[in-house]
Amino acid sequence: MDYSRPELADRLAAAYVAGTLRGAARRRFVALTRVHPTLRRAVREWEARLMPLTTTVEPVVPPARVWQAIERRIASVSAPRPGWWERLAVWRALTGVASMAALTLAVLLALPQPAQPPIVVVLSAAGGTPGVGGVVPASFVASISADGRALVTKPIQQVSLQADKALELWAVPPSGAPRSLGLISAQGATVVQRGRVLDNTAAFAVSLEPPGGSPTGAPTGPILYIGKLTS
What we know:
Blueprint: H1 6-18, H2 23-33, H3 37-50, H4 64-76, H5 89-92, H6 105-108, E1 119-125, E2 138-144, E3 151-155, E4 166-172, E5 179-184, E6 190-192, E7 203-209, E8 223-228
Antiparallel strand pairs: 1-2, 1-8, 2-3, 3-6, 4-5, 4-7, 7-8
Helix pairs in contact: 1-3
């Protein structure tokens, strides 16, 4: 079978990303994507088309035993090695935040697993009170498409926000000023499309701003949530 044919690659990729390609056929397709660039490209294109639909997935509250297992795993994970960000006071409370990625499993369980899975970043309350195992409770999950062209944010916990305030998402580089990715919702999912959002980005941060966003192009309010990318 000629998998370089665009129409065949598109049809198979659509079924794979939508989750209708199952069993042995799905496993065979995953193996084929490793050697066929046309299939990989088709998968990336379908992920970009369907990613906004993840905003319609209703959150599922897992049984208590699931959270207990997650808490035990978090408590057993060592804190990550400090980097340049640890020199900043706002980052110091975030030691061990990377281990909170386990919480995103509940959000992603209903989604088909692509050949190149999305990158997930957990944003925790900056300067928050440590929870179980000394880990700061997570407040947002940011899921970035494999090609870095789209990003979806969603609060894990309900965020109370005054009517005259807004939340603005920022891409934080290893050095230099952060760049705005736009306003995000405090209640539901927000789809952000800003080109290659991962380029020159070491972390994501959320600041408290006026209703229309920062008037200066830089954060003007306090940093409420922050999460770093892991290599």
